[in-house]
Amino acid sequence: MVGRWPYLVAGVLAALGVVLIVVGGCLVPYFDDVIVQRLKSHVLPSNGTDSYEEWKNWSRFDPVYRRFHFFDVLNPKEVVESGRNVTVNETRSYVYRVNFERRNLKFNSGNSRLSFDLYKTFSFERNLSSGAEDDYLTAVNLPILNLATRLRFENRTVQSETAQEVNRLGEGLFARVRVSDLLWGYNNTNLETLLIYLDGRFGIRPLNDSTYGLFYQKGQPKKTTYEGSYEVDTEDLSSVWKVTEWNGRRSLGVWNSNASDRINGTDGSAWSPSVDKSTPEWLFDSDWCRSFRLTAFDPEERKVGDLGTYGYYLSNASLSYSAAEGNRGFCQPTPKQNNGSCLNDGVLNVTNCKDNVPLLLSQPHFLGADVKYIASVSGLHPNQTKHQTTFDIEPMSGEVVKASRKMQLNAYLMNLTSFPNTTQLADDAVVPVVWTDEVYSMTETERQYLANEHDIRRKYDVVKYTLIGVGALLLVIAVVIVVVVFLLRRCKAAKEGQDEVDERQPLLH
After folding, report:
1. Which of 127, 320, 407, 505 has an alpha carbon within 20 to 30 A of 439's alpha carbon?
2. 4: DSSP letter
3. Considering the chain, what is the average pLDDT of its residues?
């Protein structure tokens, strides 16, 4: 006979199941809050905390290196005398360790914004380089080209007499120059002579300094660059590290539309946590003087070591004025004219942002650029794997696990009256000077910390979902017991009823 005990067991199991489900359900928001608080303490900067000091000193990254690959011009005489296309050879790589320093840090009154000045100091790493800083190469004569470009709208007398002085001093379209001088600056005595001549003869001084270098900055120690004054968001996890101002401006005041001029995204050292591939990520790059919308690699999670990441890259469309309607605001005429049509796809004119120095930016080897640029220079071999800017971001924290930021600096050659060596050029040309690759990766300590955080999250998930799962299982068992007991009782009752009917039947018919 089935007694009452099965119902008691079912009741106990059901009650226990309900308790476990309620406890597991309560742990969901509790554990989520614990995770958020742990994330806040690790990500949000607060003066005096370890996370603040690590962010300030870039100590979550292994040493950062920037590689410089120069283009040695092989046929300068043929270019000048017959207007032939430039032929280049990519030189050996020159590697510098980059020290990032954030100075003058200041929180606003509500601790929702943090401002700082960013400096980079470069130290040459001979053991990692395949060449020495004293190596020479043939490159576009950038100091004299810079001067001649600035004189292009002066009257013909100024330009023609300047041309005579340029000839007298023996300056040409190309020059032999040391690697360190081209990068960090040197006093060009002929440029100084020309500036003194122009000041005395015509009362004009188109340049304030006779020192020239691609990364030279007047007033800064050699091999030190000032990257600008930043203000970043520090209010909450959804917007932390986003650049809100650069050099005191919320927009750049350089480009031709509000959308292009707007500062979007972070500086590339970290993104806001909970990265979602369905939402675009933005990068503000002061070297490029613009913001980029990054493109996600395939939807599958990538691996850097044992850490899962989301991969992003700078797409060719980012520098296309024809394929991407949103890029029309970056359309700028060539440095030769004040107005006119855009440069072709793949090249960005940053003259207005770089103190009117006639330099154009592109991806290395004109990757993704209009075929016009690649065809006009022999010796280029664009390779997407080698020349594309990429970021691997850990999605939970938004931290960068590995990054490779690439760009190419190019000189714009045009016919200039004040620069006689340019008169034989068949057409205006964009000639590559150097491409750079700034590489940084997360320290093993930081990767291990994030891996441990993922383990903690998984353990939290195991605990709360195990409680909910066991509770649900106990409820199912309790229901099964009740149903089984109910069916057994019905079967027994039916059998007893049948036996009673059989006993009433006569034995003989």
Report:
1. 320
2. S
3. 87
